[in-house]
Structures are given as structure tokens and as C-alpha cells.
Amino acid sequence: MKVNIISLLAIFFFTILSAQQKKTIGSVERLLPEINQFVTPGAEIEILAEGFGWSEGPVWVDRLNAVLFSDVPGNKVYQWEEKNGLSVFLDPSGHTGIAPRAKKGSLNAVNRDESGSNGLVLDQNGQLIICMHGDRRVARLTDWEKKGFNTIVGKYRGKYFNSPNDLVYAKNGDLYFTDPPYGLKNGDKDALKELAFNGVFKLTSSGEISLIIDNLTRPNGVAISNDQKTLYVAVSDPKDKRIMAYDITKDGVENSRVFFNDDSLEKQSRGNFDGIKIHPSGTIFATGPGGVLIITPEGKHLGTIKTEEKTANCAFDSNHKYLYMTTHMYLTRIKL
Fold first, then answer.
1. How many domains does the chain have?
2. CATH code of the domain covering residue 324
3. Is residue 303 situated within a structural domain?
4. Mean model confidence pLDDT for the chain
5. What's the farthest any 2 CA atoms get from each other in the chain?
6. CA separation, residue 211 to residues 156, 198, 201, 248 (Å)
7. pLDDT tens digit string along 207-219?
8. Are 46 and 23 in contact (CB under 8 A)?
């Protein structure tokens, strides 16, 4: 009987300690009842890890049973999993020295750590594909143990990209990625910028690269609708916050239109439109002013997971049980 009492007391105190250690942030803004189909009433935003310069690009990896995400200024990819918590997965992650970069001490020098990786995605073979800011390329992780890379694409018509930012695969194997100048210290005015635009590109499974959008000031997050007919692109220009939509065609895109732009968000909430992920229902989870906005395919705003800090991107686990969010200096998640 004593053993049972001791066991019960141990479980009780462990539960109390776990509750004390659990850190949360923010709240959920419920604008329409339909949001309850996605985020249960009472769900909390958990802080899983902290201390990052700018967390970005989360992706769930079944083979690791973990989420991977970038710390862009730290030039690292981290791994977080339920049992063992946080560990470094890649170092360096996006700056290995193969592309022109400003030298320290020069007028064009980076005043922080070198730009590392940003967006991460898995290809159809389960290989990790990385947007490398510092190397100005999109690369593949060739060995999960030795952590080697090879370049998928590094130039367009002989010129280096600005700093590939986010990416998504279509079901046919085409890779779409955005290329704003965030990895260049002086942005559009940087002496190392070789392209006259900030583009959205398509790389076919056969290796053909094409520029499909060249008129957005700050193309950022990118996603494809479940029916493969619509390409969504977030514009993170603070002077022109919006999410664009395009019809996907064989040769690129057409029918450019604003999918979502709520001016009232800018007045009360921090952050710009950034990462986009599509739920199996077709509903859009878009990081933006206030946190993560939940938007129907028709553009109806159901509510916002309000993270308090600026949130760059988000990702579902494979069962869509949790939404993981890269929230400035934090990795956070909420149960769905």
C-alpha cells in the first residue's frame, strides 16, 4: 500500500512540476465560430524553445519525429522533438562561403552573424531542401548523418539569386520559391545584388528554371492550394502588406489578384505577411499581422492565433495535430 501511495505522490508532484515548467504566450482571437473546427476553445500557445535571433522555416520530419527550423542570423537549423527537446541539426545551415558576401569591416559588411538558412521543405523523396540566404542558393541535404549539401539551383541566367527565402513543391515535382533581398544587408541597394527584381521562380523536375513573377516588392511565403490550381504568395512589404493569388498554368501563372488584405490589421497588430501553409481542408494558415491568420479559400478571416511576437512561418505535423510556429526568438506550437 505504501508503494502505491508513493507512486501516486510522485505522479502528482511530477504533474505539478510539468505544469509549472510549461510556458505559454498569447491567445486566440475568434472572429467567427468556424475557427473552432481548427483550434479547440481553451487551446494554449506553448513556448517550446527560446533564445533565437530570428526563427524561420519550420518543417515536420517523420523520420526524426521532430520539427526542424532555421535560426537565420545564427546560421543554424535546430531540431525539436517531444522526448529530448532542442538540439542543433545543421551548423552551418545557409552560409558556407560559396557565394559573394560582404567582407567584415567593409561598407557593405553584415553587422550580425552571417545569414543562414530560411525556408525548409521535404521533396517527394523525403530529402530536406533548404533556402540558403548566405549562399544565395537552394540546396539539398545529401546525407542526414554527415550533413553534406549539393546545389539544386544557384543562379538565374548566370546571375546569383538575392537570397532564396521560402519554397513549396507541387505534386508534379515542380519547385516554387521566392527570392527577396533580405539576405543582403542593404536590400535592393546592395552592391552585391545582381538581379534587378525580387522574383518568384519555378524549377521543374527536369531542372528548367523560369521566372514567373517579377513585380512584387517583397515576395516571401509561398504555398499551393490542395487542388494544385492556385499559387499563393505573401508580400512582406510593410508599406503594402497582402497575400496574392495566381492561377497556375503550364508555363507559369496568370490572373494575378489580391487574395487577402485587411488594412485594419496593420493598425493594431505587429508583423508582416510571411509564411503560408495549407490545411487538408483547403483553409489557409498565414503568418501575418498579429500572429497566424486562419483564412478560408474564399478569403474569409476566421480568426488569429495571436502570438504577441512577430511570427515568421508555421508548419503542421504529419497528423495535423499541432501547428508549430517560428515566433521571433521562440519556437511555439498550438494544439489543433
1. 1
2. 2.120.10.30
3. yes
4. 90
5. 77
6. 8, 10, 5, 13
7. 999 999 999 999 9
8. yes
